[in-house]
Amino acid sequence: MNIHEYQAKAVLKTFGVPVSRGVAIFKPEEAAAAAKELGGPLWVVKSQIHAGGRGKGKFKEPAAGDKGGVRLAKSVEEVETYAAQMLGNTLVTVQTGPAGKVVHRLYIEEGSDIEKELYLSMLVDRSTSRIAFVVSTEGGMDIEAVAHDTPEKIVSFSIDPATGIMPHHGRTLARALGLKGDLAKQAGELATQLYTAFVAKDMTMLEINPLIVTKDGKLRCLDAKIAFEGNSLYRHPDVVALRDLTEEDEKEIEASKYDLSYVALDGTIGCMVNGAGLAMATMDIIKLYGEEPANFLDVGGGASKEKVTAAFKIITADPNVKGILINIFGGIMKCDVLAEGVIAAVKEVGLNVPLVVRLEGTNVEKGKAIINASGLNVISADDLDDAAQKIVSAVRGK
């Protein structure tokens, strides 16, 4: 689960992390009051969308101006003008794709006197099962470009969960960022604050770009992005309350109601699979035969009739889907039970595109017999390779 920048800063502030003062607004008429509350003389008007590259982004509508999604204002009147231009308009960045995202919220933030821009992020290192810091002196830039062009400027180190954050980690962070004296001390305190927040809130990613050094010698987080572990949200109702459904795909929202792991993609073949690894293999083999998957959809090991029906509705709601491939291993549930669920789902939801079903596991022959005897336009497959070839051929009209 992702949250907006202003929400991320509010979370970090509760752990003592230094952030700039700001006010979130939702209507243009709220802009002047927010600017006056902050006091000026400089304000930064920031579009709040779940995507990076806002500053270099462009609005689709000419009326929104051409200054991007993050703008510096030098008067209350400019803050009002920018708010009126940006709210309700569609911002396109390198991460939104050509469709862009509609800006429903702005963050009016006090300006900062910047001496230096740094980069700091934290993530879960899957190879070591530890939380890792990734830092660079090249803040305010596209970190992917830094990694490609000057990888030596990126330093990473991980934290042993048995010890947690220690003073030497703060010193390592300070050295990597080239900070000395009081700034090094501040870096140590910041490392502890961020690690504490990361663990306490079950984060999976925290990025601060840029982390700035102000002209009066203070560290401050000028931007913040946070992603949370979805499986841990039951422990954090305060985080769940921050969810912005307007930033999420409607099909993904519906899938979450049924505990389905769903990610919308750009292809034409809808996939319904039980197990993440099997789902990845299914998408790979579809691509191998020249087509593209329309989604990642894992119904889980205990796929029930209700889940299958919900998954069907979600897949068929995508107008780009020209065919559906079901690839289920009957382990916890038997294949004949799964087949009955598939048939019931097809009858309830309807089917206007080719459907190929591959079942494997307990009672697989019974499952195939149920599908073949259903009288519906359902194609049975013997294995994954056979299933992939059949759905690709069907989508291509062969």
Automatic annotation (TrEMBL):
Residues 9-264 form the ATP-grasp domain. It catalyses: GTP + succinate + CoA = succinyl-CoA + GDP + phosphate; succinate + ATP + CoA = succinyl-CoA + ADP + phosphate; (S)-malate + ATP + CoA = (S)-malyl-CoA + ADP + phosphate. GO terms for molecular function: ATP binding; magnesium ion binding; malate-CoA ligase activity; succinate-CoA ligase (ADP-forming) activity; succinate-CoA ligase (GDP-forming) activity. InterPro entries: ATP-grasp (IPR011761), ATP-grasp_succ-CoA_synth-type (IPR013650), ATP_grasp_subdomain_1 (IPR013815), Succ-CoA_synthase_bsu_CS (IPR017866), SUCC_ACL_C (IPR005811), Succ_CoA_ligase-like_bsu (IPR005809), Succinyl-CoA_synth-like (IPR016102). The keyword rRNA-binding does not apply. Binds 1 Mg(2+) ion per subunit. ATP binds at K46, G53, R54, G55, E109, S112, E117. Pathway: Carbohydrate metabolism; tricarboxylic acid cycle; succinate from succinyl-CoA (ligase route): step 1/1; One-carbon metabolism; formaldehyde assimilation via serine pathway. GO terms for cellular component: cytosol; succinate-CoA ligase complex. Transmembrane segments: none annotated. Pfam families: ATP-grasp_2 (PF08442), Ligase_CoA (PF00549). Its EC number is 6.2.1.5. Mg(2+) binds at N209, D223. GO terms for biological process: succinyl-CoA metabolic process; tricarboxylic acid cycle. Its cofactor is Mg(2+). Substrate binds at N274, G331, I332, M333. Keywords: ATP-binding, Ligase, Magnesium, Metal-binding, Nucleotide-binding, Tricarboxylic acid cycle. Belongs to the succinate/malate CoA ligase beta subunit family. Heterotetramer of two alpha and two beta subunits. Succinyl-CoA synthetase functions in the citric acid cycle (TCA), coupling the hydrolysis of succinyl-CoA to the synthesis of either ATP or GTP and thus represents the only step of substrate-level phosphorylation in the TCA. The beta subunit provides nucleotide specificity of the enzyme and binds the substrate succinate, while the binding sites for coenzyme A and phosphate are found in the alpha subunit. HAMAP family: Succ_CoA_beta. This is Succinate--CoA ligase [ADP-forming] subunit beta. It comes from Blastochloris tepida.
